Structure formats: C-alpha cells, structure tokens
TrEMBL record:
This is YihY/virulence factor BrkB family protein. Signal peptide: none annotated. It comes from Pelagihabitans pacificus. Keywords: Cell membrane, Membrane, Transmembrane, Transmembrane helix. It is a multi-pass membrane protein. GO terms for cellular component: plasma membrane. It comes from the Bacteria. It is found in: Cell membrane. It holds the Pfam family Virul_fac_BrkB. The chain crosses the membrane at residues 45-69, 109-129, 158-180, 192-217, 229-252, 264-292. InterPro entries: Virul_fac_BrkB (IPR017039).
Length: 315
C-alpha cells in the first residue's frame, strides 16, 4: 500500500507539461532507445511464436466469435483481412487452413487439440511480448520467482486471447454497421458524407486497436504505470499500426516478397507481417517509456520485479 502511495505521489509531482514543440526531441530519444534494445531480435522471436500459434488461434476465434456472429461470416471476414494484409495467395493458403479446422467430423477433437496448442503457442506470443516490454522498460523479475507466477503469466496471456476475440467481434459488428451506413449514404447522400463515413471507420479502428495496446501496456509487463501515460503510448502505437498495416499491404501487393520462397511464401509473409508489426509496437512502448520518464509519470516495477539498473546504465 505504501509503495502505491509513493508511486502516485511521484506521479503527481511531474517534471513539466508536454508541449507540441517537444515532440521532435521525444521522437529522437525514442528512436535511440528503440535501437538500443535490439527491436529486430525481439520482433523475430514474437513472429516465431505467432506462426506457431496461428492454427490454434484460428480454431479458437472461429469457435468462439463464430458461435455469436456466425462461423461462415467470421471465416469470410478473416479471409478478407488476410487478403488485404498479406495478399490473395497468402489468404487462399490460410483459407485452406481454416477449412481444415472446420471439418465437422473432427471439429471437437481439433478444438481440444487447438486449445492445447494455444496454451503453448498463443500464450507463448504474449509471454514473449511480456518479456520484451519488460526488457524495453528496463524491468526484470526478482531472482526468486515462484512457479505460480509463471502459471499466472500464462493464464494472463490466455486472457489476452479472449480479449482479442471480443475486440474482433466488436470490430466485425461495427464494420458491418458502417458498411450498411456507407451503402445508404452512397445512394442517398452527397459524396462528402461518404468520406466522413470512411473517416469514422478509421477512427473506430484506431480506437479498438488503442484499447488493445492500452491493455497490453497496462497489464502485460511487470510494472505500475498510470493510465494517462498508457493512453498516450497506446494511441500513438495504434496510429502507427493502422498506417503501417496499409503500407505493408501495398508493399506485399506490389513487391510480393513471398513469391521467391514458393510453397513457403505464406509462412514468410506471416513472419514479415508480424515482425514489422512488432517493431511498431516496440516503438510505441519506447515512446511510452520516454514520455513517462520525461514528464514525471514514471514506470515502476511491480512487487515481483525490479529495475534492471545495469542495462539502464549501459544504454
């Protein structure tokens, strides 16, 4: 209780208020910190676990979100998302994977196996993200970490999968509503209103992704961090993510980097996409750290962690 009060008191003191003219120096410092923490190595690790977890994630999403929204609808929307992000060929390969998971004769068995793989693969993704965020924020676990803490970390990672499923369902519903609104506007109202609908779609996408990143920054690492700081970093990361998603889809569509690898092309595209996305996530985390340190909000270790003073001094 005392630690929390000290944290809140230090947070309220502050080191000045943010001003727009500070942004270039904050970005420059963020870039230096980002490069010093080997973001390419960290993103490669996350990409590996993401590929490992993909089949299980598809099973869980189709059986959870599909139970509410409809399996065929969810499958179609996922295919559209993969097509926009990775290209038609990669989307077709993932569609084949989805069809395999929907084989009714082995659906129950595949779901059980999928959950088991999910516990190893998908929780591994978030466990590695946790380690990476701790590393970026110069936090390390205390020498004696109980086994129950490791189990709780895995359970927390599984909870994030459920959060993603919920946010995905919310996104599908809102997207369907906006699509219906857009169809009505295009036939009844001027084009300028149609552009406003597209802007609304963009804002909703950023809002949902911001919420996901905010939850990750707040609850995934072993830290105490104020919501004010969390939202600053989460919104920036979400904007970078949405813009990066668009640029990556254009790059994959034009350059087709996976075509060089033949049958393994889909795997390579997924690795590249997750790796690039992780780089943006880590940049946002670095920005959050720099912002917190500069303006006195602070990022403090939780009860089971401590500051990695040696690494912090090296950088």
């Amino acid at each position: 209780m005392t630690d929390n009060n000290e944290f809140n008191n230090e947070s309220r003191q502050g080191k000045g208020k943010f001003k727009l003219r500070h942004l270039p120096s904050i970005i420059a410092e963020t870039y230096r910190e980002w490069m010093s923490n080997s973001p390419f190595r960290l993103s490669a690790v996350v990409a590996y676990y993401a590929v490992l977890s993909l089949p299980a994630l598809l099973i869980i999403i189709l059986n959870s979100v599909g139970a509410i929204w409809g399996t065929e609808v969810v499958q179609g929307k996922l295919s559209d998302e993969f097509s926009m992000a990775l290209g038609k060929d990669a989307a077709a390969a993932i569609e084949a994977m989805i069809r395999e998971t929907q084989d009714q004769e082995k659906n129950t068995i595949s779901t059980i196996i999928g959950i088991a793989v999910l516990l190893y693969g998908a929780t591994g993704v978030f466990y590695q993200l946790k380690i990476s965020l701790n590393n970026i924020w110069y936090i390390k676990p205390k020498p004696k970490v109980l086994i129950w803490k490791i189990i709780m970390d895995r359970a927390q990672s599984f909870a994030f999968i459920l959060v993603i499923a919920f946010l995905l369902l919310t996104s599908f519903i809102l997207t369907a509503a906006i699509t219906a609104l857009t169809d009505f506007i295009s036939s009844q109202l001027p084009d300028i209103v149609l552009y406003l609908a597209y802007l609304l779609d963009f804002i909703i996408s950023v809002a949902i992704i911001s919420l996901l990143f905010a939850l990750m920054f707040k609850f995934l690492p072993d830290v105490k961090i104020r919501w004010k700081t969390v939202w600053v970093g989460a919104v920036l990361t979400a904007v970078l993510f949405v813009i990066g998603k668009l640029l990556l889809s254009l790059y994959f569509g034009q350059a087709q980097p996976g075509s060089t690898y033949g049958a393994a092309g889909t795997l390579i595209l997924i690795l590249l996409w997750v790796s690039y996305s992780s780089l943006l996530l880590f940049f946002g985390a670095e920005f959050t750290y720099v912002f917190a340190e500069r303006y006195g909000h602070g990022i403090r270790p939780s009860e089971i962690a401590e500051v990695d003073t040696a690494r912090k001094q090296e950088n």
